[in-house]
Amino acid sequence: MRKLLAIVLIIAMSISLLSACNKAKPVDEPTPTPDASTPKTEEPQQKTVTLRTVSMFGGTDPSAADYQQLIANFMKENSNIVINDESATADETWKARVTTDFSSGNDPDVVFYFTGADAVQLIETGKVVSIEEIREVYPDYASNITEAAMSFMKEFDGKHYAVPIRGFYEGLFCNTDLFEQYGLELPTDWEKLETAIKKFKEVGIVPIAASFSDVPHYWIEHFIYAVGGYEDHKVNPKDTYPESWAEGLRWFKKFKDMGAFPVDVNATKNDITTNMFYDKQAAMILDGSWIVGGIKDPDTVTVLPVPCAPGGKKDPSDIIGGFSTGFYISRKAWDDPDKRDAAVKFVQYMTSNEAISLFAKVAGAPAADVPSPEGMTAVMEAGIKMGGQAKNIDMPIDSRLSKEAWTFLVSSIGSIADGQVTPEEVLQEVVNKNK
Amino acid sequence: MLYRDKKPLIVFIIPSLVILGVFLYYPFVQNIINSFYDISGLAALGGGKYVGLENFRKMFTDPGIRQSLKNTLYMMFFAVFFQVGTALILALMVDSITKGAQFFRTVFFFPVVISATAIGLMFNLFYSYNGGLFNQILLKLGMERVLWLSDELAIYMVSLPVIWQYVGFYFVILLTGLNGIPQDIFEYALLDGVTGIRKTWYISLPLIWDVIKVCLILAITGSLKVFDLPWVVAPNGAPKGLTHFLGTYMYFKTFISQSVGYGAAISVLIVVLGLVVSFTVNKVLRRDPIVY
């Protein structure tokens, strides 16, 4: 009996080892395994192409469901293409995973990824194909994308690589019902912002939901923007930094001393603080258009640009936003004659006007000329209005700074807010690391 | 040797050697080579600049390394006294009962099989200032809320779940060691009037000394590379990098800061420390084996 059990277990283990093999074996494998990490090409007579796609439309992203639906529709219309999709919420860990995949030869065929500083390595090592090159073979590729959107996609070498679908904006989201409840005006200028912070602190509501240990990114951008304005914000500090940057970062300590942030701002997580905002335990949150999907009652929320700081140069309507993501086709897929056509078809499907309407419905401005979606909530309308009225729209600083410099700045915010280190010391180190 | 013809042995050993070589030794050596280069960016494909010992020199002035080393030493101390210590006390107690030993083995071992990420997330929620379990209990008892992950308390709060999870692991190992002591010895001891604490101190402990030594080495080297739990409870060494351990700091530098060469240097440091510490512990705790 024991011998029989041992033999059965050995056979089961051997089969599981065999099914993990990724070479096309002449032996019939029992069932297609869900191993999505390596594309399998099956016997020539079927001509089925498997594409491995990676995107950030997973987890808590508001477009996750739409994206999966689009994939299902695509596979129905193209029965010879199988999509193995791996999507997860975009955060630093996910970005690291994508770059590690590329560097280890595990390139995805199509990836929806960031542009700017994050894409530099992929472009320098030739891992992704430029739109110019794709257009030599497929002249209509990405032809429906507006020029404005495409202009954000231009990389350091003058070429474009990613096909965008929607832009994003960042702004100060406010729970209007809490403001009304305590008789406060919305923070359209700095004085009103400070008044609101002090009042909310008094009544026990967290004025601004934020997590310095996790994602202090938005407050870094906007404090600098509020003091330095568009001209100083868009600088890429190579040898020196603008004085306004130090002035801007000083506001971290001033706001923390005012009690603007949660008590555990240095140790809490972004998910927890965002939920505090959704659950009306916090009055404001500085975040991006992607959080709109999770807002529980969107008609009691609005979004405004961060006001100009005292003595600052920011135009009150200026916002941070732009197009910073798009679909890339990897060199590996492009060089594979079977996959090239399928990859182009997939990207064109995902960036068609119909798909873009779907994606832009939940957040941000569409990259193509599509009609405004119906059924927009108060906060969605406020966001689009804010984007339309902005005098200047600038991309975030982290799209320009080197990874090491930006990470150093991000991890120093807690210490700046606690007054343990001066903004000047931190910025000098940031400049040193910004190669 | 039992086998006259040794050739079949070699045939069976070679596959494991090959796998070990490809997946363990080759990356290990490559990592040591990487630590002499300045590689920024995960997709840089080894196209880094040769900088010699610069990465190692940087470690001497990096406040992050100092903090991580300090925290790792704390963790080693906690691991030795609280993890193995508690496990030893529990093992001695469970060894002396007749009924229910199996029940305790299961219950104490249970945290070991829970995913570290799940435990980390759970404790992260416990420690949350607004609405976390611990603060809710304090509020219900009429007390003030506590900032559990404050600058002073964070290191202890982050170490707590790490220590708690593996007590059961060492407990089972020590209990097995205790169970392996022949009962005759205890009967002779009883005849000589040696019971209770004296029995434990003079008989049980010396006889499981080798097991204790193994547990201590495992605990100490484990604390050198701990990563998953601290990272989930307090990501990026929250607050302000004060809860970074060598393992989490290495991850932070390699995957988030993308200074791959520097991260490789940190991992070499971890290996060297691990070897030095295990060698030292082995030497310090060596005793002549007791033959019975």
Key features of this structure:
A: 435 residues, alpha/beta, D-Maltodextrin-Binding Protein, domain 2, 2 domains, six-stranded mixed sheet, four-stranded mixed sheet, 44% helix, globular, B: mainly alpha, 2 strands
Structure described in brief:
The complex is a heterodimer of chains A (435) and B (292). Chain A is α/β, with parallel strands linked by helices and 435 residues long.
Care to describe what's here?
The complex is a heterodimer of chains A (435) and B (292). With 435 residues, chain A is an alpha/beta fold. Chain A has helices spanning 2-19, 64-77, 92-103, 120-124, 131-137, 147-151, 176-181, 190-203, 217-233, 243-258, 270-278, 331-335, 337-350, 353-362, 378-389, 403-417, 423-433; strands at 49-55, 81-87, 110-114, 168-175, 206-209, 282-288, 301-304, 319-322, 325-329, 393-394. Chain A folds into two domains: 47-167 and 323-362, 3-Layer(aba) Sandwich (D-Maltodextrin-Binding Protein, domain 2), CATH 3.40.190; 169-321 and 382-433, 3-Layer(aba) Sandwich (D-Maltodextrin-Binding Protein, domain 2). In chain A, helix 9 (217-233) runs antiparallel to helix 10 (243-258). Chain B contains 13 helices and two strands; from the N terminus they run αββαααααααααααα. A two-stranded antiparallel sheet of chain B has the order 1-2. Chain B is mainly alpha-helical and 292 residues long. Chain B has a single domain (50-284), classed as Orthogonal Bundle (MetI-like fold). In chain B, helix 2 crosses helix 13 and helix 3 packs parallel to helix 7. The A-B interface holds A 92-93, 96, 99-100, 102-103, 120-122, 125, 127, 206, 212-214, 262-264, 266-269, 272, 276, 281, 402-404, 407-408, 411, 414-415, 418, 420, 435 and B 40-45, 47, 124-125, 127-131, 145, 147-151, 154, 234-241, 252, 255-259.
